[in-house]
Design brief:
34% helix; single chain; 492 residues; D-amino Acid Aminotransferase, Chain A, domain 1; five-stranded parallel beta sheet; globular; Dna Ligase, domain 1; six-stranded antiparallel beta sheet; alpha+beta; 3 domains; Rossmann fold
């Protein structure tokens, strides 16, 4: 058995490790942009190989897979899928775990996802407007003073999202100016170079509540959900600072988070299943691979979709894959053969915490965060009860590991509770540093009792409102007062 992995982040390190635990004893091969030390070690241990190159180039991936004579390919990140890697592999007769280009638009185009949910009447949808020209977006902003979320219409690595609450009348002009400026920044900076979708700017209604991620495997017919995970995207403690790719994440024992109920979990799963069915109806292709709903518990709907991923989250994958008890290769084969309903998806009954460590400069000045020599004492981390997953790092021929400009490692730990796992991960932090003295940072509050309490209180507040709305038949509806017209109800 030969398996090739595409990608080089901590997510892919976790996927590679799960593959290598298989009873089929596969040889691991990898195609990467950077030389991830953890993935390379697994390739060598299993008798496989690795290559480096442009992982969004279909010809490079197909040629590598054919040269290695692999049985299937697992694509980790989203951009290769957006560039049609799965299509090229399937056309070459090589099975792929990863959505084809058309279904992957569920993540690539946030406007496509929103339109799909409205067209098919899927719960958890938000009101939105998509714009192809920045001038139209600015004109809309000037006309309507609302609390909104402004986003790039395409997936651009989690960058460019700004949520603006427009509640004070005396600040409406200033808030409008901020919205206008950010719309221009989205168009000129975050969407620069992306020509694969027509929409440029997305304006959505603002919602609030605790976020969580529902990751799942699907073969197009069956959706098998993983335990819920919550990512923490802000760079600094207590959810402040710029948004990052994720500074760490938590998962509770069993399938739930401490602030999400079983009913909410099931409803979230049904939303993801409905979107998988809708994608096939819209594109004509079955969705095969990983699908993840980035959810929020809101007063409007309860479980609400913020965005979709056509892959595992990062760091969310690192919470769940190390505790996966089912055989990863067997699961992949079941996806390929469309018999996922015949395979059990089982996990250890344990809580997990992941803490990302990043070089200073990340996320806004990645040029400053790049090229620093990394020192990781893996044995010391193990002694403290943690595990290292290498992220944006590049192994040099002399054995030196250099930072790639993003998070350099993610520390995984597990325990009987989230705070216990958080303390174990925290104890591992001193064993990761940069040899040239350049600083690193992380979030000490991820997995802490104080932050967990904050999430629980927020969820309880939101839950009280959306349950009241359910009883009154107001879920998905917005009531607004328009001068001269009175009360109107906007249907979802």
């Amino acid at each position: 058995m030969k398996v090739m992995l595409v990608g080089e982040a901590a997510r892919e390190h976790a996927i590679a490790e799960a593959v290598c635990r298989s009873r089929f004893e596969p040889k691991l091969y990898a195609a990467m942009k950077l030389r991830n030390p953890g993935i390379i070690s697994l390739c060598k241990r299993t008798g496989g190989e690795y290559v480096t190159g442009k992982t969004t180039d279909p010809s490079f991936i197909v040629e590598s897979a054919e040269r290695f004579h692999v049985d299937f390919v697992f694509v980790g990140p989203e951009e290769p899928l957006f560039h049609g890697i799965a299509d090229a592999l399937e056309e070459a007769g090589i099975p792929c775990i990863g959505a084809r280009r058309a279904p992957a638009e569920l993540e690539m185009s946030k406007a496509f996802m929103r339109r799909l949910m409205w067209k098919h009447g899927i719960p958890g949808r938000l009101r939105f407007k998509a714009f192809r020209e920045v001038e139209d977006a600015v004109a809309y902003i000037r006309e309507y003073a609302e609390s909104v979320a402004l986003k790039p219409a395409r997936q651009v690595g989690g960058k460019g999202v700004k949520v603006i609450a427009d509640l004070q009348a005396y600040l409406s002009r200033e808030k409008a100016h901020v919205k206008e400026q950010h719309a221009k920044i989205i168009s000129e900076e975050h969407m620069k170079g992306y020509t694969d979708i027509e929409d440029r700017i997305l304006i959505e209604e603002k919602v609030e509540g605790p976020e969580y991620t529902l990751q799942a495997f699907t073969d197009g017919r069956t959706v098998k959900p993983f335990p819920l995970v919550q990512d923490n995207k802000n760079a600094f403690e207590m959810d402040i600072g710029p948004e990052t790719g994720g500074m760490g994440s938590i998962a509770g024992r069993g399938m739930l988070l401490p602030f999400i109920t079983m009913q909410e979990y099931r409803r979230s799963t049904e939303i993801v299943k409905a979107c998988v069915r809708a994608v096939e109806a819209e594109t004509g292709y079955k969705y095969k691979g990983v699908v993840s709903g980035q959810m929020m518990l809101t007063a409007a709907w309860g479980p609400t979709i913020i965005e979709f991923y056509c892959r595992f989250g990062d760091p969310e994958a690192v919470n769940v894959l190390p505790i996966l008890k089912s055989d990863m290769v067997e699961l992949c084969q079941a996806i390929i053969d469309e018999r996922l309903n015949k395979v059990k998806l089982e996990f250890e009954d344990i809580a997990t915490v992941v803490k990302g460590i990043a070089p200073k400069g990340y996320p806004d000045r990645r040029d400053l965060a790049k090229g620093h020599p990394v020192v990781v004492d893996e044995e010391a981390v193990k002694r403290k009860g943690g595990r290292v997953y290498y992220a944006s790092t590049d192994l040099q021929p002399d054995g030196t590991i250099l930072t790639g400009g993003s998070r350099l490692v993610e520390i995984f730990a597990k325990g009987k509770s989230i705070p216990e796992a958080g303390r174990k991960a925290e104890a591992c932090i001193p064993f990761v540093s940069l040899a040239d003295g350049w600083g690193v940072f992380y979030r000490s509050d991820i997995g802490s009792e104080i932050l967990l309490k904050r999430r629980i209180e927020q969820a309880e507040l939101v839950r009280g409102v959306y349950k009241y709305r359910f009883r009154k038949g107001l879920v998905g509806k917005t009531i607004e007062w328009i001068p001269g017209r009175g009360k109107i109800v906007l249907e979802a």
